[in-house]
Write a structure and sequence with these properties.
alpha/beta; Rossmann fold; Alpha-Beta Plaits; 2 domains; 6-stranded parallel beta sheet
């Protein structure tokens, strides 16, 4: 189902989230005070607007309650703007607020003023690199919390020659295949249930860490 997202701050992190959400089929509106940043992503997302996201009147015109989530991706050195934007979003009835922080202290403050989820891009990237280095089969790794992860791996041997119906890993283990990239770089998301996996496929999975470990997908 197509969802609606608002992203405040279109620096490297915000722009990356905006492009990714758009690529997988969702509607994304991006806000930033920089005309240059707006122009970088304007053609790649649903809409991009130059404005001050700490202006309550501007946010009011966007019908904040209509968005499935709002991502506050303002740079860490402008933490006061992140705090103010989060406060306003909470007051306007945002369903879910995800805020970027650079330190634990910033994260605690943002949580106190209304952010539902705090992300630490630099710390998380370091963890991903470390886990990728010690797991040869993992191409990319994103921890969604203490118990769940999204991983991108080279097609496991147990998948080769089988389709999703035959594997039945969602029913058996609660693991979902959310995308497959074949040797021609064609991406299917979600993949057809009758598609037979090939040895050189790249597979993206989401599931509980304990189940991913049980199948040997992560260490």
């Amino acid at each position: 189902m197509k969802k609606q997202f608002l992203i405040i701050g279109l620096g490297r992190f915000g722009a990356s989230v905006a492009r990714t959400l758009t690529k997988i089929g969702h509607n994304v509106i991006g806000l930033d005070q920089s005309e240059e940043r707006i122009q970088r992503v304007a053609a790649e997302i649903t809409d991009a607007m130059k404005c001050n996201a700490t202006d309550a009147e501007i946010l009011e015109t966007l019908n904040i309650r209509d968005f499935d989530a709002v991502i506050v991706a303002i740079g860490e050195k402008y933490i006061q703007n992140s705090i103010l934007a989060t406060l306003i979003l909470k007051e306007k009835g945002a369903k879910k607020i995800i805020a970027k922080a650079g330190t634990q202290t910033q994260g605690r403050i943002l949580s106190k003023v209304g952010a539902d989820v705090i992300v630490y891009p630099e710390r998380d990237m370091g963890e991903r690199v470390a886990k990728n280095l010690v797991s040869a089969n993992i191409l990319d790794y994103l921890e969604l919390g203490p118990d769940f992860s999204i991983i991108e791996i080279i097609c496991p041997k147990m998948f080769v020659g089988q389709n999703l119906i035959e594997l039945n890993i969602r029913h058996k283990y609660g693991i979902t295949v959310i995308a497959v990239k074949n040797a021609k770089n064609e991406i299917k998301s979600p993949p057809d249930i009758n598609y037979r996996f090939q040895p050189d496929d790249v597979v993206v999975l989401i599931g509980e860490n304990k189940q991913l470990k049980k199948l040997g997908f992560i260490d």
